[in-house]
Design a protein that fits this description.
Blueprint: H1 3-13, H2 18-27, H3 33-45, H4 49-58, H5 64-73, H6 78-89, H7 99-111, H8 116-128, H9 135-147, H10 151-160, H11 166-178, H12 182-194, H13 201-213, H14 217-230, H15 236-248, H16 252-262, H17 268-281, H18 284-296, H19 303-316, H20 319-331, H21 339-351, H22 355-364, H23 371-383, H24 387-400, H25 405-417, H26 421-434, H27 444-454
Helix pairs in contact: 1-3, 2-3, 3-4, 3-5, 4-5, 5-6, 5-7, 7-8, 7-9, 8-27, 9-10, 9-11, 10-11, 11-12, 11-13, 12-13, 13-14, 13-15, 14-15, 15-16, 15-17, 16-17, 17-18, 17-19, 18-19, 19-20, 19-21, 20-21, 21-22, 21-23, 22-23, 23-24, 23-25, 24-25, 25-26
The chain binds one DNA strand of 10 nucleotides through helix 1, helix 3, helix 5, helix 7 and helix 9.
Pfam families: E_motif (PF20431), PPR (PF01535), PPR_2 (PF13041)
Keywords: Repeat
PPR repeats: 267-301
Length: 457
Amino acid sequence: MNKALDRGDAAQTNNTDPRILHARTLKSPYTDRSDFNNLITLYSKSNLLSYSLRVFNQIPSPNIVSWTSLISAHTNSPLSLRFFLSMLCHPTFSFLPNQRTFASLFKTCASLSYSFTFGLSLHSMSLKLSFNDKPFCGSALVNFYSKFRLPDYAKKVFDEMHDKEEVCYSAMIVCLAQNSRCVDSLSVFADMRRRDVASTVHSVSGALRSAAELAAMEQCRIIHGHALVAGFDRNVVVGTALIDGYGKAGHVFDARRVFDENVSVLNVVAWNAMLSGYAQQGDKNSVLELFHLLETRGFSPDEYSFLAVLTAFSNAGLASESEKWIEKMRVRYGLEPGLEHYTCLIGAYGRAGRLEDAEKIAMEMPFEPDAAVWRALLSSSALHGASDMALRMAHRLLEVNPYDDSAYVIAANVLSASGRWDEVAAMRKMMKDRRVRKEGGRSWIEVKGEVHVFLGG
DNA sequence: TATCGCTACT
């Protein structure tokens, strides 16, 4: 930890109002620029952002550290990008951004949905200044590409980085996990261990998320063992990822053991992970029991808690129960049901064989049906041998998601069961025609080129 | 010479 943070933390723990320090700084004849720079950071850590800008404006001749302090004080806000542009456009001084400036800016771009091209041009600048292979910049850049769903670009940045330390690996592992590249994510985790780079709660929870998505029991166990050795097993996030992983792998007893061992530190997210583990097993009784316990312990159930309950009901085909809980969620808990809750409701009606009601809900609910809704209706109609409806739903599903091969598989099954071979063949042909050229995106080289053009380089 | 990056529940 560096000096500035030490000072900042000390001031916070002593409950010193930064404004007192500010007044002293202004009065003292010994004040230099670094005192102002520290104040900017101190104010932002105390959630007094407007004062950060005020201090900055009081600095007689701000330097790059002042600018970077101001920019990072406004991380995740568009103001941070504006300040950066002001700095570049400054008429009298020429400030060259450094690695820390870029690290903050990449973080901001990652958090703003509209700042993709801004991030690309920053990447180009950092390439020219040779910052993108530095650990701090590189990890922030990996995260940036991760948030914009470009894991291959992130991997390219990662591969070109020098001195990859634990945060770089964490960022990459988490990126691949968040983008459903589970096997790659686990292999980077393995690579990290081979190279003796320390793991962190971030990399461990990222790897666990991948193992969970793969429902890979063996990997969960291995990472669990590692978490125990590394002393991360009491961490809430790691614990939650373990509960989720064991649950998804179908080992609810292992999930429950982790849950019980850590219950004193767990929050509602962890409870939800346990609930959804039971729900995926179709263990409705355990879900309801745990839901009740959650309330007894003083937690408030949220949308995810209700989703777990409704998932269980959907798997069990409990239509009227689902209806009741949706109502309860809205009226007694003040939570508005989302698309996923309606999808469960539709699934429950469908599984119960009330296909028309299920379709009616899909048409009348306050959301546009998505692929999951059509898939629920498709599997329900297939389950009950309603081949006409199944065919219709398969078409709707393919309209929203032309690449969904499950549409073909499920519809083909029910159609062949009724001997409708011609329609199976037609379906197959339609799938082929729909399979338009997959646009895998432009190559890395192309994007790099574009970035240089963008900056006139 | 102060400023920086990565986690869990559909």
